[in-house]
């Protein structure tokens, strides 16, 4: 079930490529996060694709502040590096806490839908008129009568995977996407949601079926991201998990957090630190470990195995057919990949 691994773009570019080379011996797809203020995801994925021969993907990018022509071109260029049997995955969502702290996100689901349609038209070799994508055109100041095409593109091996938790984006995913990502660090798709018995009520996965009724896509792959932080040093693993969890609690609606058992007092200080620009490191220090534990499985390999097995069993029961080991992976990605491939994953097969 586990076919991929997600690397955090806060690490150095060369070190991520080195880790990816090792990970590619075990995983089919190397996913890289796109956090805007971290390393450039396109450059990192290009280096990984060229060096490893693995499939690559964004997990996940977003339309705000981005040129859609460049995004389409980047994905098609990455596809040129893919060997037979591998593909590029454009994981896309509405942007996280760092994005919303910097810019307004008007009609986010509509913007994601336009980006998907825009990219697909270019990948089909069509000439795209900017004004046919009014939300994008208005937000980026594009000329309505302007046209663009990618004459060198010929149906690249790119699948579009939408990440989200809300009913509107999941219904849109069901209609337009080739797959959907649901990550365990989001409250409504978390271990907390499963353990509380609230997953079916809060996951909104029923909206995928509503979207599929209008879809012309041949299939929809359900991908579950299992967010993990593993290290021989438990304290460092836990600290990395808190950093990842801080990114999540800073952007999620209070209702989503409270539905699965979190109290506002658990995360208020962390949320305020992100929104006032104090940075993720400072925000993570303010997050209680018991909150992070429900969103990111962390600790030594022995600490993680039982919870991972439990979470994957829940995911299978919920209809997911593919999974990846999600960020942060661990405080030292090289150590984490080694521990995951030699000590953790063999216990889960």
UniProtKB/TrEMBL annotation:
InterPro entries: F420-G6PD/mer, Luciferase-like_dom, Luciferase-like_sf. Keywords: Oxidoreductase. It comes from the Bacteria. Residues 17-312 form the Luciferase-like domain. Gene3D superfamilies: Luciferase-like domain (3.20.20.30). One of its GO terms (molecular function) is oxidoreductase activity, acting on paired donors, with incorporation or reduction of molecular oxygen. Signal peptide: none annotated. The keyword Oxidoreductase applies. It holds the Pfam family Bac_luciferase. PANTHER family: 5,10-METHYLENETETRAHYDROMETHANOPTERIN REDUCTASE, PTHR43244. This is LLM class flavin-dependent oxidoreductase. It comes from Streptomyces fagopyri. The lineage of its organism: Bacteria, Bacillati, Actinomycetota, Actinomycetes, Kitasatosporales.
């Amino acid at each position: 079930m586990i076919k991929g691994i997600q690397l955090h773009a806060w690490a150095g570019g060369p070190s991520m490529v080195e880790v990816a080379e090792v990970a590619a011996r075990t995983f089919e797809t190397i996913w890289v996060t796109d956090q805007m203020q971290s390393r450039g995801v396109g450059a990192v994925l290009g280096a990984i694709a060229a060096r490893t021969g693995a499939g690559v993907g964004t997990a996940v990018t977003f339309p705000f502040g981005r040129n859609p022509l460049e995004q389409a071109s980047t994905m098609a260029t990455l596809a040129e590096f893919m060997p037979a049997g591998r593909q590029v995955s454009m994981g896309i969502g509405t942007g996280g806490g760092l994005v919303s702290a910097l810019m307004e996100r008007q009609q986010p689901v509509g913007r994601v839908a336009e980006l998907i349609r825009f990219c697909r038209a270019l990948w089909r070799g069509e000439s795209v008129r900017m004004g046919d994508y009014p939300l994008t055109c208005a937000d980026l100041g594009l000329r309505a009568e302007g046209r663009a095409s990618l004459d060198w593109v010929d149906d690249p091996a790119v699948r579009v995977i939408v990440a989200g938790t809300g009913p509107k984006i999941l219904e849109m995913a069901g209609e337009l996407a080739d797959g959907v990502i649901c990550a365990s660090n989001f409250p409504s798709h978390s271990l907390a949601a499963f353990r509380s018995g609230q997953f079916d009520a809060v996951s909104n996965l029923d909206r995928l079926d509503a979207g599929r009724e209008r879809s012309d896509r041949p299939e929809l792959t359900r991908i579950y991201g299992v967010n993990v932080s593993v290290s021989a040093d438990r304290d460092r693993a836990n600290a990395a998990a808190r950093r990842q969890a801080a990114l999540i609690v800073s952007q999620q609606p209070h209702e989503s957090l409270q539905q699965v058992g979190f109290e506002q007092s658990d995360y208020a200080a962390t949320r305020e630190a992100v929104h006032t620009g104090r940075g993720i490191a400072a925000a993570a220090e303010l997050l209680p470990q018991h909150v992070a534990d429900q969103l990111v499985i962390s600790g030594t390999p022995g600490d993680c195995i039982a919870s991972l097995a439990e979470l994957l069993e829940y995911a299978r029961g919920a209809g997911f057919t593919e999974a990846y080991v999600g960020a942060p992976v661990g405080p030292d990605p090289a150590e984490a990949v080694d521990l995951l491939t030699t000590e953790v994953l063999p216990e889960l097969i």
